[in-house]
DNA sequence: AAGATTTGCAACCGCAATTAA
DNA sequence: ATTAATTGCGGTTGCAAATCT
């Protein structure tokens, strides 16, 4: 099973994507959907490998991505999940559907790691012990639960692909002010019109309306979210399609954390128990496995 | 003001898992 | 059941911007 050729033959362009390339890619995906990446470079004429196209779409162009500063609430969630799951950025990102795994990973490496190091003593009480039962401010809910249960708050709206490009374009113009991008602007306007119609057709939303958190959750079936949670978190198994409340979920999650820790301590890592006990102020301050926390 | 250093992040690389034939 | 192709993921790198000296 050799490594597959991910790139089309010929000169493959590398480095930052230009707005023109973004527009071509978004336009193609609008028409064909985000699948069959192998065909994207050949069908669009983009001198990029399929993998690069997919990455560009998933990390920067797809609708629903929020960029920019992380809120303190998002930070809390990332810190807790990193403690619980380790460096499983994709799993962590599934709790923050607005953020990409790459974004979270970068933010962790550049900001949170340092922050935690700096505030290590504070952090140990910051992450509540599994059985403390009390605080709701640090609760983590997987997206896809009913809206009234969502605890990942955000006041922002989700950006469409065209808005993503627009934002990228602004950055591009700041860094390359002499570049002639009028045609890109024109194409972008066209793209935004096209996109608002598509949103309207697909979801029944009114034209020119941005997606909100609620809209996004509507598009994320509970069943899929629960399945994902089953796979990535702590093997808490819910019956498919079962509705559950924050209290039920949180209780189950805490119970699972507790049992995992007990298992880890008593069965698999007895030799580390003393060291771990020193950290019990941090509650779930280590991943479930053997990977180091930082 | 200018050079050196640090920081932040987009993008790439390579392996693993999954899917399709 | 096997194998090749595709997709997903996490670690790492390169470079531009920001900050420091």
TrEMBL record:
This is Myb-related protein 306. Residues 9-61, 62-112 form the Myb-like domain. The lineage of its organism: Eukaryota, Viridiplantae, Streptophyta, Embryophyta, Tracheophyta. InterPro entries: Homeodomain-like_sf, Myb_dom, Myb_TF_plants, SANT/Myb. The keyword DNA-binding applies. It comes from the Eukaryota. Residues 9-61, 62-116 form the HTH myb-type domain. Pfam families: Myb_DNA-binding (PF00249). The keyword tRNA-binding does not apply. It comes from Platanthera guangdongensis. Keywords: DNA-binding, Nucleus. CDD domains: SANT. It is found in: Nucleus. Its main location: nucleus.
């Amino acid at each position: 099973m050799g490594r597959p050729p991910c790139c089309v033959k010929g000169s493959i362009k590398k480095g930052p994507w230009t707005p023109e390339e973004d527009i071509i890619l978004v336009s193609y995906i609008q028409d064909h959907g985000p699948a069959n990446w192998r065909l994207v470079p050949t069908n669009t004429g983009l001198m990029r490998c399929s993998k690069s196209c997919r990455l560009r779409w998933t990390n920067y162009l797809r609708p629903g991505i929020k960029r920019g500063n992380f809120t303190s609430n998002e930070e809390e969630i990332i810190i807790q999940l990193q403690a619980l799951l380790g460096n499983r950025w994709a799993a962590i990102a599934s709790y923050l559907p607005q953020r990409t795994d790459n974004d979270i990973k970068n933010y962790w490496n550049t900001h949170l790691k340092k922050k935690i190091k700096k505030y290590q003593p504070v952090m140990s009480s910051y992450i509540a012990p599994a059985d403390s039962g009390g605080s709701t401010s640090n609760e983590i809910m997987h997206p896809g639960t009913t809206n009234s249960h969502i605890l990942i708050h955000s006041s922002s709206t989700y950006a469409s692909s065209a808005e993503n490009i627009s934002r990228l374009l602004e950055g591009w113009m700041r860094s390359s002010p002499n570049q002639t991008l009028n045609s890109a602007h024109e194409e972008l306007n066209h793209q935004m019109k096209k996109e608002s119609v598509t949103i309207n057709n697909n979801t029944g939303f009114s034209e020119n309306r941005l997606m909100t958190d609620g809209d996004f959750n509507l598009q994320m079936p509970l069943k899929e979210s629960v399945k994902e949670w089953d796979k990535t978190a702590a093997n808490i198994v819910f019956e498919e399609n079962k509705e559950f409340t924050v209290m039920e979920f949180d209780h189950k999650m805490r119970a699972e954390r507790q049992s995992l820790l007990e298992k880890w301590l008593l069965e698999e890592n007895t030799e580390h128990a003393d060291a771990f006990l020193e950290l019990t102020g941090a509650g779930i301050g280590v991943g479930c496995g053997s990977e180091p926390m930082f």
